[in-house]
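Notebook entry, structure prediction.
Reason for the run: the old model in the group folder had no record of what sequence produced it. Starting over properly, with the input documented here first.
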Amino acid sequence: MVCRPGKEKDPLEKIRHSAAHVMADAVQSLFPGTKVTIGPVIDDGFYYDFDREESFAPDDLEKIEKKMREIIQQNLPFEEEEVSKKEAYALFKKKGENYKVEILEGLSDNEKITLYRHGPWVDLCKGPHTKSTGDIKVFKLLSIAGAYWRGDEKRDRLQRIYGTAFLTHKDLEEFLKLRKEAEDRDHRHLGKQLKLFSTLEEDGAGLVLWHPRGAHIRHIIENYWREAHLKGGYDFVYTPHLARRDMWQVSGHLDFYQDSMFSPMKIDEVDYQLKPMNCPFHIKIYKTDLRSYRDLPLRWAELGTVYRYERSGVLHGLFRVRGFTQDDAHIFCTPGQLEGEIQEILKFTISMLSTFGFKEYGIFLSTRPEKSVGSDEHWELATNALKQALEQQGLSYEIDPGEGVFYGPKIDIKIRDVLGRLWQCSTIQVDFNLPERFDVDYVAEDGQRHRAIMIHRALLGSLERFFGVLIEHYAGIFPVWLSPVQLRLITITDAQIDYANKLLKAFQSSGIRVELDQRPEKLGFKIRESELEKIPFMAILGKNEVENKVLSLRSKKNGDLGKMTFEKTLEIIHAAIQSKQ
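New structure, fully documented this time:
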């Protein structure tokens, strides 16, 4: 076990921490020869990684749970023991726990090691735990997954067992209910069902294929984004997908970010690099002219596709990919403009996120990390500007100490979805480093050159990740304004096809995204298929509708709306579009 230091933890974390130990004990009791690695507490439970030749089967979880209950019923005390590195090394070497040995080899020789025991089972751990195994009352093992030792796919492949524990059975039941709802909303499943996107597997893991319907939603999002930015005083730029590697050396990415960058490629015997960021390109545009304080602030936005190397084990649908499009922007301003610009970004962010249906947020101000660049004066100026902007906007926030980026403090805005989950999307970062590295100056009122301040800013984060969040938030039932198909016309027999085609053209001319289902299938089948595809409105066209020049309208949200004219149908759909709900 490896956990964060500190003895003061909430009771639930202690229970989950202790349950992880009991689970590892149960696994080694049931499956001799299994080696343990690490098993931390996570937000909604715990996990442990194991090295075992045979794969765990889903049925094994029940066996492990049963064994855990036996250990819990023994009410074994958790006992803390402090030993030297040499003693701990000898203990785990004798037990054949090579992963624990490797952990110990990375520690200094004079470091004191803490062990925790319950009965004969022992692990490296800093604690704390419950008093005894009997304090674990409510728990459940959830799933089995693959993992790599220390997250490196070049190292040993492991098996991870996830579990959770709670203080009451009611809390566990509520968690399992939400978990089932989250599984039903999984964007990977819905993306396939609704024909929105797929990912390259054999031909390029972590790369996304946008199918026509998904691409249509992306088109709608991008159009709204562009219109909002033009109204917000931004200009658009476009930049290449790669550049000479030298530029990334100047920017510092090769020093601070190389592990997340793809290998260079040779072009005309020169090393080029796929871009992991857009910012150096925006700086290059800035430096094509001598800028005056009268020109600032400059706000430049780009939907720029970037490429970052993510380990194969962490790739996950649209949430963790290797190629994605950032809704990126950089603002070049003077120190006196900094706070005002941040306030405007905050207002812009909240406005845009609320348009997509997100009304609740977690806001975090991340301060200077241990490893950073820049003067104390710059860090204090930037941090205070972020604080003041948040407070001026009346936004509640938490301080996240030491979690800023190496070049400056930042604000992260996490959106809360319908299930209460927080998703990282928006970020505002103040940067003094890149202006220094690239000599980003402006001519001030005194006629002298001064360093500009650079603000990095993304509102949606990446379009891929944001789209995945939208799918899960709405369970694939998008608001009408975002739906790739807003209305489906369904004929009962071929006799309605001519009427249906006239309506099709009329709705298209009125700006409605409409499809016609004139297949010779049973009406119930066609209605069911439209329901599964989560189309907001469908209009049934039969003999009576043709004779009376009406439509029988059904709403995904409100059910059967009855027979109505083309004009009334159009009014209802346009009202739904305008409401953005």
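Summary: The CA atoms of residues 44 and 164 lie 7 Å apart.
The old model has been moved to the deprecated folder.
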